Amino acid sequence: MDVLIVLEDNNGKIHRMGLESIAAAQKLANGLSLSMGALVMGANGDALAKEASEYNVGEVLKINNEHLSSYSSDGYAETVKQVIEQENPTYVIFGHTYQVRDYAPKVSAKLMKPFLVDNVDVRTNEGNVVFTKQMFNAKLSADVEANSSGPFLVSFQSAAFSMDAAAAGSVSIRESTVQLDTAMIRTKSEPPFQEEVGGVDLTSADIIVSIGRGIGKEENIPLAVELSKALGGELAASRPVVDSGWLPSAHQIGSSGQSVSPKLYLALGISGAIQHVVGMKGSKNIVTINKDPDAPIFEISDYGVVGDILEIIPKLTEAIQALKN
Amino acid sequence: MSEREVLDLDVLFVGAGPASLAGAIHLKRLLSKSGTEASVAVLEKASEIGAHSLSGAIVDPRALRELFPDFPDTDFPFEAEVSEEHLYYLTENKKIPFPFVPPSMNHHHCFVTSLGKLTRWLGNKCENEGVDIFCGFAGTKLLYEGEQVVGVRTGDRGIDKNGEKKPQFEPGADIRAKVVILGEGTRGSLTKNLIDRHELMQGCNPQVWAVGVKELWQMPSGTVPPGYVAHTMGFPLGQAIFGGAFLYGMQNDIWDLGLVVGLDYQNPGVDSHHELQRLKNHPWIRSLLSAGKMIAYGAKSLPEGGWYSIPKLSVGGAMLIGDSAGFMNGQRLKGIHLAMKSGMLAAETTAEAFATGKFSESDLADYDSRIASSWIRDELWKVRNFHQGFDRGLFGGLANAGIGLFTGGRGWGIKNRLSSEAGHKKMQKGVKKNRYQDLQFDGTYLFDKVTDVYYSATAHEEDQVPHLKIRDQDVCVSKCTEEYGNPCEKFCPANVYEMLPDGDGQRLQINFSNCVHCKTCDIMDPYQIIDWVPPEGGDGPVWVNL
Question: Which residue of A has its CA nearest to B167?
């Protein structure tokens, strides 16, 4: 096969970024009519294989091995290396997850082949494959082309591709084997860290209601909560709100928080410092309410209202609730 | 999992700047020449070498040539040899060339340089010599046995903002070494503790600092002559504030524009970042930059005090080098060659100490003597009263410097030593003059502070205890507001300090993740209650070519 997608287990389901990497691999493969395969392994291999077989991934390769029942960077790195040697793919595609960051560099070192990390796009240009990655704090995008032969290890940034773009299909599952022994597994992983309690997944929200310094004081936060509930969206914030301790840091958007690209981003009382804008400029629709007509956020907004959010938010909530009823 | 690791080394340099890197290379070679097996390592708080390196810079290649005698200058990672140089006095709208560039400010045979490029290059040479470089680890505490320094503790990782351990908590390591050489840059946190504990500034003039802020501008192809050098006095600082601007032509059509502001001004409202923006309003600068795009921003403090502000340099088990010691020639605007040379002299003392196996205070005092008989002393002695002259304003300072040329550096032509006062003590209470009311940030040519901070690429783990320790925040919200109007909001070039309304009163918010590690707050706070300590290792700016 030409393109090998390595999928990751997330409690018995394919990790979201695995599905995103299927979308990336399909774009790459379709452009050059390459053949694909998806690799699953580990304790939940059967369930993952079944889920993966419902996507258009060429075929699913399932590895069962007692040494892979729990994650270890040694075991996973050795497995991927052996599969690469067996299948001889030109491209090996990963989601840029914490687990991949842990073991994929080892695969790269074992094979002495480059690992092109954290890409945001792939395209073909006159038969050449071009990967795009961000540099210098996302100020620049760099196009990278290979000038050697593969295999190339490539990972994609979270949300660079939409998992909805992964084309469905029905493909066969092939079992394969790798040679592992106890001596190879020098590391033992502790259980994964617990997610922060009350954590939100802003990156997958369609609607985000985001508040900034204009919210004024903590007592006004419930106004924004009501609005986000009425819209069925998630609540987020710019840095000053989080710094003031009014919302947990998981809600922060921007260069030191989350990067999001929802269908609707409601920026309420946010001035639009560049540090915030880099985290939300990819939103499909940006609607801004701000008292200051010169606030830089208006420059990137699709719709803007100059006004006091404390007056407008309650009315907006009311209007949306009325529409819903 | 959470036990503190102990690492035994022979020599540890703290801070991978030019002083430490040159010292480590020189030391490794001396040790291998004498057949001594000893491990040498460099600790660096940045995620990689060069990421926290910032300077003007024009480099005098003297120390590099000594360290690499077989290399032609073309092998050094310079931008370009100084090709033309200008000295201007600026008024708000005009530039008046000085009739000649005084020999002391002459930069012939020197090189426009990015310090970040130089340190990365030196880092490579270090690794070739077998020096271990630990990036992403900050030294947070000196380890002692009695009064003998025996190592450095690195910072813990994974402490949340309330001081509680997070799941990924990892305690710092104790790195034990026979000799610890502090090359932390200006106002290093370990250096500050060492100087205090051993009273190393006794009998010295207080150190006086300045802060330099700079922007890099990418210009259209073929428009920037590499090696072009201009220095200015006058606008925007005027005659009462020490400092001036520099404009250097770098490779690849990049202008390097910076402004140095003495941290001994009187008006608490002075803001170095805003002064740089005012400078850009000068028609001459505007004509040079307006077709370009700003690509990087940074700030760093520098020691201006000169020879009489250099502390005793050694204690049992430890020495001070580079900016940590104050090796900067304020008149020539150069310190990198002095920093490197000081590191090399500390290396020579260290190599001698390994020959005898003794590392006590009296053994390492050899380093103080080496400095006193080196060309560092010759160079700094001639300008030993340079900065003090500016206590009488720009023209007083220039007159003093001019007379000094003919009297071997005597103050006002007669005095061997002029005294000075710590800069923060000069700040005056109740000054309300706003220097920036006409300054309009347009977001494309003149930038507000937060936008510039973005271009320093600085980042810090947000969930940690702020690394700016303020001993008593009540002073900030009451006394300081009344007396000085919270100068921290102004002197910090990275928008770290912000006074925010809080109920009926106000509170201080510390946006520590904006910090660019310049240490200005620690230096300039009029009450001296701010302690800058390193954040988690690896945090901070990510400078590429500053």
Answer: A193
Q: Where are the alpha helices (DSSP H) in B81-173?
A: 115-128
- Say how far apart CA A212 and CA A272 lie, in whole Å: 9
Closest B-chain CA to A241: B509
Ordered by where they begin, the domains of chain A are 3-184 (3.40.50.620), 202-324 (3.40.50.1220)
| Contact check, Cβ <8 Å, B167/A193 | yes
* B463: nearest CB among A136, A249, A273: A249
Measured between alpha carbons, how far is B317 from B314 in angstroms, rounded to an integer?
8
Give me the total of CB pairs closer than 8 Å, taking one residue from chain A and one from chain B: 40
Residue B307 scores a pLDDT above 80: yes
Tokens 């290890």 belong to A153
B463 contacts on A by Cβ (under 8 Å): 249
Is the distance from CB of A21 to CB of A8 less than 8 angstroms? no
Whether residues B460 and A296 touch (CB distance < 8 A) is answered with no
- For chain B, which domains are there? 6-59+118-205+307-382 (3.50.50.60), 80-114+206-303 (3.30.9.90), 386-421 (no CATH)
pLDDT band at B24 (very low <50, low <70, confident <90, very high): very high
Between CA B319 and CA A188 the distance in angstroms is 42
The residue of chain B with its CA nearest to that of A274 is B451
What does the pLDDT look like over A166-224, one tens digit per residue? 999 999 999 999 999 999 999 887 776 655 545 577 887 889 999 999 999 999 999 99
Instruction: Point out the least confidently predicted range of A51-60, A238-247, B240-249, B324-333.
Output: A238-247
- Model pLDDT for residues A219-231, shown as the tens digit of each residue: 999 999 999 999 9
pTM of this structure:
0.80
A153 residue type, one letter? L
The answer to whether A269 and A289 have CB atoms below 8 angstroms apart is yes
Helix, strand, coil abundance in chain A, percent, nearest 5: 35, 25, 40
Note the pLDDT tens digit of each residue in B446-469: 999 999 999 999 999 888 999 999
What percent of chain B is modeled with pLDDT above 90? 86
Provide the CB-side half-sphere exposure for B340 (13 A, CA): 22
Of B172, B169, B58, the closest CA to residue B118 belongs to B58
The DSSP string of A82-97 is HHHHHH--SEEEEE--
Judge whether A263 and A229 are in contact, CB under 8 Å. Answer: no
